[in-house]
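Appendix B: complex inputs.
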Amino acid sequence: MRIPCPHCGPRTHEEFTYYGDATVRRPSATGPDAEAAFYDYVYTRDNPCGLHRELWFHQGGCHEWLVVERDTRNHDIKGAVPARSVFSADDAT
Amino acid sequence: MADALHFTYSPGRLGRREGAPGLVLQELTQFALASVIARKGQAAQAVGAAQRAFGASPPTTPTIAAGSDIAFVWSGPGHWLALGPQSTESFEARLGTVFGTHASVFDQSGSRVLLELRGPRVRDVLAKGVSIDLHPRAFRTGDVAVTTASHLAVHLWQVADEPVYRLLVVRTWFDSLWRWLAASAAEYGCEVMAPTPYTL
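Resulting structure:
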């Protein structure tokens, strides 16, 4: 399985560390359902069949976080983008 | 192959004795090393400051840029390793004055071993532990790879078309790297040269 690092180029997956679902977002700590929302955020994950957006850390390379789109059925990697390009919009709010 | 685990790192020939060595290896010593990491949103300013002061623009792609006496090795977005000559003046202070508030500078001198690798089979040797494509269509003089060699994190770059590569590895990992390198080069013959002072 090869991951196309947007900074380094195509690299073997052994250079990366997997950090799970990239679609979960930290809920508000002050909302009325904060406890349930945080339980969900920390513990519950879908087990999708098909395309999945997930976090990979390029430990053996540029030390950047990536959001990789992977097909869970056959490990086909559709693409990878810097995580900061995905999460910077969230940071601003 | 078991004998390969017992090759000591010292000048001389190891492995196959017949013919010219497939790999020629030389340690480069007496260099100063520092990491330079741009502060958030300050990468362009850091690059500009270095360009004005050193005549070398820290690269934004995996390449190496050399000025009159300092080279910047790409290490990640907004992250570089600076290599320069050893001097009585602090390398960290010299860089810190130039980068100011645009980047954080940390002295890493002495933390790494720098090797120069050449010879007709150098690419075959590296292929046994480096998973990236080093064929000239994919990797050329001036290109840098932050990758792994025999599972150890290294910086690897090409300095001449021959090809000649330089490999920078954490000093405490060198022993492990050497076991792999010696075992990998033995079938082609390996000539270890006496260490020589670093030049750009």
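The CA atoms of residues 17 and 88 of chain B lie 43 Å apart.
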